[in-house]
Amino acid sequence: MRKKTLTAMALLAVVPFLATACGTAGPTAAPSTSDSTVSSAPAEGSGRVAPGTPAEPTPTTTTPQPQPAPPPPPMTVPGTPCDIADGACVRLSTKESWLISDGRVSYGPVPITSGRPGHETPVGTFPVLWKVRDDWSRPYNAPMPFSTYFVSNGIAFHEGSLTDPSHGCVHLSREAASKYFEALQVGAEVQVTA
């Protein structure tokens, strides 16, 4: 008889643990140390839940946490379509470009030509990669004075025709190409818009 009582007590100690671990409330009455057997059905009208019986879910409401405001949109440099603080801005649709310093136009707009169909000038923001004062295009057998490269496949600002489209580069007048070459350092931003 003592062995049955100890087994019943052990069962009463384990059932609430398992019930709690499984997300249910467990029994509401304290375990008894008498020799009685464990009943799995609640006493009628007692309002108690038998061990192992899932508790009724309690509806909960949660208030969503306030989200931080999105960052403000970048401010465009007045008179340009670009939002960089320093570097060069290009608008392909109007064939013009500017140098920007401290968030303001420091030079321009100047006229440009850009890539012809099949050789379009890429749109995006790029860093100046390298510069060559008197470069030569081997594929097109043409001079490229004041080359300021900003795309790794050879796209650069340089002196070139302002009437004929390029093979992707941004052509500038001699004066503008020289100014861009001097003003833009390696790492400076170049923003090209459509």
TrEMBL record:
PROSITE patterns: LD_TPASE, PROKAR_LIPOPROTEIN. Residues 65-76 have a biased composition (Pro residues). Residues 25-43, 51-64 have a biased composition (Low complexity). The active site is at 158 (proton donor/acceptor), 169 (nucleophile). It holds the Pfam family YkuD. Residues 25-82 are annotated as: Disordered. The keyword Magnesium does not apply. Keywords: Cell shape, Cell wall biogenesis/degradation, Peptidoglycan synthesis, Signal, Transferase. Residues 86-193 form the L,D-TPase catalytic domain. It comes from the Bacteria. Pathway: Cell wall biogenesis; peptidoglycan biosynthesis. Residues 1-21 form the signal peptide. Gene3D superfamilies: L,D-transpeptidase catalytic domain-like. This is L,D-transpeptidase family protein.
